[in-house]
Write a structure and sequence with these properties.
The chain has 15 helices and four strands. It has 313 residues and is mainly α.
Amino acid sequence: MKAVAVVAAALLAGALPYLTSSNYIIGIAVSACIFTVSAAALNLVYGFTGMLSFAQLGFWGIGGYAAALTVMTYGGNFWQGLFWAGLINAALALAIGYPALRTNRHAFVITTLAFALLVNLVARDWVSLTRGPLGIPGLPPPSLFGYTFRTTPQFYWIAWTYAVLALGFLYLLCTSRIGRTLVAIKQNEPLVRAQGISPMPYKLASFALSAAITGAAGGVYSFHLGIIDPLFLDFYFMQTFLIIVIIGGAGSFWGVIAAGIALSALPEVLRFSADFRMIIYGVILVVAMFVMPSGVAGWLRERQLARMREQLR
């Protein structure tokens, strides 16, 4: 029954261009798809493995630039750009993660933050490659088998398809034996070692997969915008991904997806107050954290446990 509901919801989301002709609403839906995937990738590293990684911002930016440069500088197409965005980020995550994951968790956070800041500096100062603050404008619409995705509703199909594939893969991974091992590493790494399991390959694999998925998401989003510049690496994006994970509930797959959809739409719903929109948004987030410190998923779990206790009395 749950699988039927999920498939129905996915198909309903896929039919959005037939339900509305508003480019504004569909544009928000494109952002929701990409931000939810990126947050779910962060959830794999932070929520399931217990490693807070600010490197996701760097992977996001590298993915965007890799896809754009593949098309604009090296003569490739959009699909090749996404492939290179994922591959380059996976390779970088392995190279960075191997030494960083051998340190403690606090040092890992600092290392990933330094990496994100370094990528920002490279995007701004390596003018011969990235064109610096001028950015790379005029990204062409993707095409496939002669069909060009020119309009926002047409591009939505790309974002929706990528979201379905990426989230489907993450769900299978998180609910598998590998996902359960990642949770065990997060909860008690010494005990995992005592069972004869080496945590390093699992942590490194989750870091690399998260980087590849985030990088490809950045590539899709850069072509949605039609331009990429150093502002693509603004900390706003990392902040958004992290807020989605925290509000949804770190370690909860469905909670993060629900939060991603809701928090992508919330700032737009609050546009009735142009002056206080972001203030109201901030107040809502603060209140949500006070009421649900472990996120929506944690709050629902606590309610369910409370009902079970009542039934046992």
